[in-house]
Amino acid sequence: MITNLYRIIKYGIQGFFRNGWASVSALLVIMLALFVFLALIIFNVLTVNALNVLRDKIDISVYFQPDVSEEDITKVRQSLESLKEIKSIQYISRNEALALFQERHKNDETISKAISVLDDNPLSASLNIKANDPRDYPVIASYLNNENLKNLIDQVNYNQNQLVINRLAKILETGGKIGLGLTVILSLVAIFVTLNTIILAIYSTKDEISIMRLVGASNKFIRGPYIIQGALYGVSAAILSLILMAPLIYLSSPYVKILMPEMNLQGYFYGNLLKLFGYQLLFGITLGAVSSAIAVRKYLKI
Amino acid sequence: MISFQNVSKIYNSHSVALENINLSINPNEFVSIVGRNGAGKSTLIKLLIGEEKPSKGRVIFGPYEVNKLKPQELPDLRRQIGIVFQDYRLLPMNNAYENIAFALEVEGRAQSEIEEFVPQVLDMVGLTQRAYNFPHELSGGEKQRVAIARAMIHRPAVVVADEPTGNLDPLHAAEIVKLLIKINELGTTVILVTHNKDVVNSLHRRVISLDNGKIIRDEEKGKYMLA
Prior knowledge:
The complex is a heterodimer. Chain A is of the alpha+beta class. Chain A is built from twelve helices and four strands, in the order ααβαβααβααβααααα.
């Protein structure tokens, strides 16, 4: 048993090195498949990241009447916190609002002057509300339109932003779906192309398979080395695809940063290198070994 | 040990490869099977090693009823038979030593046995110096000697040689036949399928002549005659 296993592995490794061009072409195709797979993983990370950034920018601001006490605002806040749709609430007092406003317009002399001549702070206190899911904003908005709160609240900016918020929510959802669809379709294409290349590579050795059958080799003994060989294609392709991806990440990282300042692509790539290599290995070995097993089946019937 | 009982192989109504063949071969016999192209010689061998199934009749080899074996049972049968082909059928990616060792490896034999037997057999076929050459580096005669070494190393009950001299010049052909005689003298049944008149006539052993899928002659100490 162990002798057989040793021989199967030996023949697998030997085939990998002695099969020349057939090995090279199978390896290159798996490498391309893994490269596509890796690019899709990174694309998905980028989309999820972009979606999260967008999601984070959506909120509802509730502006209170200037004469509403802090105590009343705290009560509203507490009642809002009991809603499960809400992720976070940030309270901005009138003074804080003024400070923020001044900070934002400190380079604009006209506005700075205008504020300094005012006796009273014209700004309202507000609550900044973020939902767990962008689709939940209508629920929160309708809660805020409730009769009991009407005399406390000056305005809810959701109504003005409703269209934009809904559209963003839709875009986020569709973006996620497109990413998933692309992953599935391109993975299927990669699997199909790999399977065909390996079938061709093994087709070129079909005479050898028939010789082995005639000498009395069992199907397991014939199939084993091909599966090992397929797995070796997967391992080498995993390493090569990462090496190929590294310069591309290096080159594209600055452009990604312009589009998404929060995303450090290169940092992500090197920070998750082991995990990515693990995925590549898993996908590569499975792709190589399963394709080989399927391909060799055809010729084991003599 | 080997018997064909009422065996026919019909591909279609226009192509009858074998018709009602009855023959038996005893242990330690050296049998030549002769006939024109398409007489059914190779079909006979294919039926014996289970590469094809008869349309009718039974093919018996020792304890096996070959026509009833399932694909997964064929390796066991084939390990009892050593086969030599006209086109050598060596594994092109493996050197001479590895090709010969392969027949022992598929049986799961220990590495120590392989290391002991392969050099002995290489010596017997006179290829000790060529052990690490690949098939494309060997001449036709050398390739055929490797094939014979592979066919006999696991001490099969029968060695079947299908036109082993077909691609060789008379000198190399004679060497191959000498090897087959030696194998037979060591106690192995040899079935030689051939076109080569000189080879058959020099053997003075049993000759079975086939024509149009039928046995037309079966003689102890026969000669090569097709009519």
